[in-house]
Amino acid sequence: MTSALARAAAVSSLLVALASPLAAQPAERRFDALAEAFLDGWLDRHPQVATGLGVHAWDGVLRPVTQATLAEDAAWYRSFRARLAAIPRGGLSFERALDHDVLAARIESELLDLEVIRPYQTHPNAYVELVAGSIQSLLERDVASPCERVREATRRLGQVPEVLRAARVNLENPPEIFTRVALQQLAGAITFYRSEVPALAAGCRDPETQADLAEADSAAVRALESFLDYLRDDLLPRSRGDFALGRETFQRKLACDEMETAPVDSLLARGERELEETRGRMALLAEAIAPGQGLRAALDSLARDAPPPDSLVTAVAAGLDRVRGFLRAHAIVTLPEKQHLIVRATPAFRRGTSFASMESPGVWERRATEAYYNVTPADPTWSPEHRREHLALFNPYAADLVSIHETLPGHYLQALALRRTPARLRQAWLCRSTSEGWAHYCEQMMIEQGYGGGDPRYELAQLALAAQRLGRLIVGISMHTRGMTYPEGAALFQERCFMAPANAAREAGRAAMDPTDLVYTLGKWRILELRDGLRARLGERFSLRAFHDALLLAGGAPLPVAGEILRHQFEDAAAGGVE
Fold first, then answer.
1. Residue 242 exposed, middle or buried by CB count within 10 Å (0-12, 13-18, 19+)
2. Is residue 92 within 8 Å of residue 27, measured between CB atoms?
3. Is 350 exposed, middle or buried, given 0-12, 13-18 or 19+ CB atoms closer than 10 A?
4. pLDDT tens readout for residues 210-242
5. Is residue 5 over pLDDT 60?
6. Inter-CA distances, 194 with 190, 214, 349, 540, Å
7. What is the pLDDT of residues 435-479, one digit of tens each?
8. At what angle are helices 456-481 and 486-496 packed, to 10 degrees?
9. Residue 191 Cα to chain centre, angstroms
10. Do residues 244 and 481 touch, judged by C-beta distance below 8 A?
């Protein structure tokens, strides 16, 4: 076990000991040992993930994905499933039993990917993080001395050609949209190799180390250029696969990934209702903003305030300062004393499917604490209309809400709180409906708490983002379980969610590639239900800040588990109050 893992395990054990004065029962010790063994083996199988989490024993490793490794991994997960089943859940404490559920769901999720969805066979984009993100995470953070980081990155770059050779063997008949997006993302990876890798490595002054890096980087560029030729000339013409998961697999994925058991038809019906309600509320706000001109005119009036291309990052940073000021003035959530948050342009190899994102330090990272808030610039190769449509997403009202989502009190604050979560399983995996649901919930909650000072343009921007996420739910379910086509999905985003054509097309492609992108709306629903249930029970004793702090401290567990933790935690509050 690495020293970082050992330190984190020691902290976790201390927290458990403080919380539970009684000695652990045999089932508890067996479960703890199994959980540690699983985490260690899981990180060994995903060295690039280990780096991102702040565990650096595998920093020089890049594991090619082959049919042999996939079969080996599936057998490993099945063995852990059997070992976990042998530990009686009823013999565990309350929180350990919930962690038993979390681990069981994670194992099923991994097996579903390996044995049914098979992304390494059907999704060329699955290799982007392996060949680009794994290098970036080593070089951009101060996790070791500059030359040590360069040497580890050089070792990983040296393995890129083998990773891409294996990818050619693995890929079979992906959907056309998957291959087209991979071509765009991997072209960005070449830009990253040629321009950003040398710049990120400049802090190392050792000539021999720099020469080794240049050689490995050049070989990686050649391998990636050859792979792009293969994708464009060979794989794309025969990319005729079906992206739809089908109802059974979609439902199973929701259960494994999110512990969500509601039938997809009921989720779809609720999404349809809420989209119409959201559109109705938007129409009322539009009348206050652009009287007599209609909703599209009101939305266009927001878009006219978009920043020019060369000031996107500075405009977003200024909005982030407004968000910070509001949070300091209101008792909404406990803020950290120190923040190390940097606003920057999105790395080139991540721009194909994202207009904004958050890269926080790993939960077990102790040295490099900087966090990167990425905003995607308009590509100069786009048409003028496409550039205008893209930058309109960053009008000051929407941009502030995007900052709320990505940074404070959204993803960045959630990542900082994750470090204090006392269960390592709930630190390692951040369930998407918990993560994206929290960030999307924060957009609505901040408007409810008065952000924007009652200016209807802020609420309209918030509802426009909510409509987009409801569109993701409707289109995702419809494309994967009801036969909706990619053009039909793009049309729905454009016609019912008020999105510009270029942005609607991007969203439809995202729905095809990410079947459960409904997690934004689904997670927000579940958090609101939990909050409102606790508020109804506690009445005047309910504290919004206490609720938010407790939810963040529950970690990355799926929301059904987080809900159990909070309800258990606040049981005595009905009598004694919550402070």
1. exposed
2. yes
3. buried
4. 999 999 999 999 999 999 999 999 999 999 999
5. no
6. 6, 10, 12, 59
7. 999 999 999 999 999 999 999 999 999 999 999 999 999 999 999
8. 160
9. 23
10. yes
Question: What is residue 373's three-state secondary structure?
Answer: strand
Burial of 68 (0-12, 13-18, 19+ CB in 10 A): exposed
Q: Which residues contact 129 (CB under 8 A, 6 or more apart)?
A: 48
Q: Give the span between the Cα atoms of 478 and 24, in whole angstroms.
A: 48
In the 8-state DSSP scheme, what is residue 192? I
528 vs 400: CA distance, rounded Å: 22
10 burial level (CB within 10 Å; 0-12, 13-18, 19+): exposed
356: helix, strand or coil: strand
**Would you put residue 555 in left (φ > 0), alpha (ψ -120 to 50) or beta?**
left
To the question of pTM greater than 0.90 for the whole model, the response is yes
Domain spans, the chain: 26-238, 263-307+413-579
Residue with tokens 């709930």: 426
Q: Which of 105, 97, 12, 252 is nearest to 564 (CA)?
A: 97
Residue 314 burial (CB count, 10 A): 10
Cα–Cα distance measured from residue 229 to residue 525, given in angstroms and rounded to the nearest whole number: 44
Interhelix angle 432-448/559-569, rounded to 10 degrees, is 60
Q: Are 93 and 400 in contact (CB under 8 A)?
A: no
Distances (CA, A) of 577 to 32, 359, 452: 33, 37, 31
Residues 87 and 192: their CA atoms lie apart, in Å, by 47
DSSP category for residue 154 = H
Distance of CA 463 to the CA centre of its chain: 21
Q: What are phi and psi of 342, to 5 degrees?
A: -120, 125
Name the nearest CA neighbour of 84 among 35, 144, 51. 35
The two structure tokens encoding residue 271 = 């999404």
Q: What is the CA radius of gyration of the chain?
A: 24
Q: What single-letter DSSP state applies at residue 124?
A: G
- Closest CA relative to residue 372, chosen from 417, 336, 337, 412: 412
Which amino acid is located at 434 in the chain? T
pLDDT at 575 over 70: no
Is the backbone peptide bond immediately before 409 cis, with ω within 30 degrees of 0?
yes
Both tokens of 200, joined, read: 């990120």
The residues, ordered by sequence, that sit 6+ positions from 238 with a Cβ below 8 Å of its Cβ are 173
Q: Is the pLDDT of residue 2 over 50?
A: no
**228-231 contacts, C-beta under 8 A, 24 or more apart:** 228/183, 228/186, 228/187, 228/190, 230/168, 231/124, 231/179, 231/182, 231/183, 231/186
Please, what sign has the CA dihedral across residues 332, 410, 466, 539?
negative
Sheet holding 341-345, edge to edge: 341-345, 371-375, 356-359
